[in-house]
Design a protein that fits this description.
This protein has about 120 residues and is α+β, with helices and mostly antiparallel strands. It contains 2 helices and 6 strands, in the order αββββαββ. Helices cover about 15% and strands about 45% of the residues. The protein has a 4-stranded antiparallel beta sheet with strand order 3-1-5-6, with no helix packed on it.
């Protein structure tokens, strides 16, 4: 049985050669690139003064205040999580407010062709 956190599949082989073929098929599916050149751009609103990006992702704050982050490629069967921390002075007194906007760009592979997808999300406190 090959599993990944309970989301794997069950395999049965009567001999070692069949087992090797089945396992190789599972590995091939995990290494399939489903998206490339993924990035997120963060645009903060006042009073946010800094954004901390956890992990080893390349980023730099630009002169216009935006922070583009290169996420790289995505592979089938390999979920990814990224963590951001926004420094918001006076957060208690701020109340409900939009502190940042995130713009995601990714190139998806479908039917052998690449499709660009863009999504925008607000970060509310």
């Amino acid at each position: 049985m090959v599993t990944d956190g309970g989301t794997g599949s069950a395999l049965f082989a009567e001999d070692p050669d069949t087992a090797a073929q089945l396992i190789a098929g599972e590995v091939d599916n995990l290494l399939v690139k489903v998206a490339q050149a993924a990035s997120v751009t963060i645009r903060t609103h006042r009073p946010v003064h800094t954004v901390h990006v956890f992990g080893r992702l390349p980023f730099a704050q630009l002169a216009d205040g935006s922070t583009p982050i290169e996420l790289g490629d995505f592979y089938a069967g390999k979920p990814r999580c990224h963590l951001l921390r926004f420094a918001v002075p006076g957060v208690v007194a701020l109340g409900l407010a939009t502190i940042a906007e995130l713009s995601f760009t990714i190139e998806l592979f479908r039917s052998g062709r690449v499709h660009e997808m863009r999504r925008h999300r607000s970060v509310d406190h």
